[in-house]
Amino acid sequence: MRPSGRSVNEMRPISIETNVTKHAEGSCLIKVGDTHVLCTASLEARVPPFLKNTGLGWVTAEYGMLPRSTGSRMRREATTGKQGGRTVEIQRLIGRSLRAGVDRVALGERQITVDCDVIQADGGTRCASITGGWVALRLAVNQLMKAGDIISDPLVDPVAAVSCGIYAGQPVLDLDYPEDSEAGVDGNFVMTGTGKLIEVQMSAEGSTFTRDQMNALMDLADKGVGELVAAQNTAVGG
Predict the structure, then answer these.
(1) Per the confidence metrics, is the pTM higher than 0.85?
(2) 123 annotated as a binding-site residue
């Protein structure tokens, strides 16, 4: 039924390779099927002006797609002089999602910037960015703790995300591009490792959906996020 031959509740293969860059305090290359994202976390001993002298830390994110991450070459946004609306929306989502799993008091007055660069896109780039972004964040925080710069662990819960949708009339887990481009309903589910919801983005495209279908998508998301969190914990040695 699915173009990939997967069952309706089957994730694409998940791979997370850590410490893939030399300079970043935390880094990973996450692969969810044919979607590949490089995630790096950078520590800075400063916070935005609105947090100065508050004792609170900050986690933020930036997101971008490389020119040949898609079937035809895209122009770099730097050449147009501004980021597109989609890029801004996604990087704000990534930042919000990661902050939901952080005790900003325990982090202290410092900033961690998570950069998510899509090397290859095949659906679910924002979800892979959030999932890989948490791994990079975890590794950067580990460095802070090892150095004794913070006493208690500020990461209270893993954060991961997965897409689900109604494809060919059935709820399916982890949409790849052929499904995402034709799904009547699609959604992105951001959750913690303990199953709490951070954000749900759902919309109907040429179709509508029922409460029962929404619940079915939630159940699929629970399963998918559980598998992603297990992969995260394996990657960071948790």
Answers:
(1) yes
(2) no
